[in-house]
Every structure is written in structure tokens, then in C-alpha cells.
Design goal:
129 residues, alpha/beta, Rossmann fold, five-stranded parallel β-sheet, 5 helices, 5 strands
Length: 129
């Protein structure tokens, strides 16, 4: 894994407080700077404080959805990665995410109890290398 540090900033967007704080706890523990947003609109405001290296976005958000957040993120940070998280995966949203250049599309819940086996960590490490 590359050296994670304050220079590698992650914007994590999820309307579920428990998910947001679990992501922050996990990713901060391994050295990433994690900024949290509870809505798409809040994520757009936080993007002004970039740069960011990775977006983790829940697909279903109140107001602006995760795919719309991903569109804005990609235009603001074209070299950054995007991982979409969803509790309701479907072929249609997977295709839409792929069309946006999303690096991966992960179904929730994902098990991050043991980091070497954490699908989310594995996908992040692939992109951030």
C-alpha cells in the first residue's frame, strides 16, 4: 500500500451517520484524511475545499444523488477516483456509474472487520497506488 497521509484526501458522502463515522474511523486509522458529508449538497460545498484524491459516495442520498455528486466530483477533480456504495445494487445504476468513469461500485454492507480482507480497502489501495 502507498504511504497514506494528509496529502491523500477522501470525501465520503453517506446519509447514514453510522456508515459515515465507520468510514472515517477505518480510513483515518490507516492514514487517510477523511472529510464527511451527509448529503449531495453538502458534498458539493466541501468540494470547494479540495483537492480530493477519492470520492466514496452512497448512491441513494436525499436531494442530489450519488451519481450526480460523482459527475460534479469528476469535473472538479478529473484525476481522482470514485467509488460508489449502494445498498440497492442494480445493473442500470452499475452501468450509469461505469459511464461516469466510476472506479468501482460496491454493494453495502461490506465487511471491514479485518482490513486485509476488506473489499473497500482493497479497491481504494488499487486506485491510490
Amino acid at each position: 500500500m502507498p504511504e497514506a497521509g494528509p496529502q491523500q484526501r477522501i470525501l465520503a458522502v453517506d446519509d447514514e451517520e453510522g456508515i459515515r463515522y465507520a468510514l472515517k474511523r477505518l480510513l483515518s486509522k490507516i492514514g487517510y484524511s477523511v472529510i464527511l458529508a451527509k448529503s449531495g449538497e453538502e458534498a458539493l460545498e466541501l468540494m470547494k475545499e479540495g483537492p480530493f484524491h477519492l470520492l466514496l459516495a452512497d448512491l441513494k442520498l436525499p436531494g442530489l444523488d450519488g451519481l450526480e455528486v460523482a459527475r460534479h466530483f469528476k469535473s472538479s477533480f478529473p484525476q481522482a477516483g470514485i467509488l460508489v456504495l449502494t445498498g440497492i445494487p442494480s445493473p442500470e445504476t452499475a452501468r450509469q456509474a461505469a459511464d461516469l468513469g466510476v472506479f468501482d461500485y460496491l454493494a453495502k454492507p461490506f465487511d471491514c472487520g479485518q482490513r486485509p480482507h476488506c473489499e473497500l480497502c482493497f479497491q481504494m489501495e488499487l486506485f491510490l497506488k
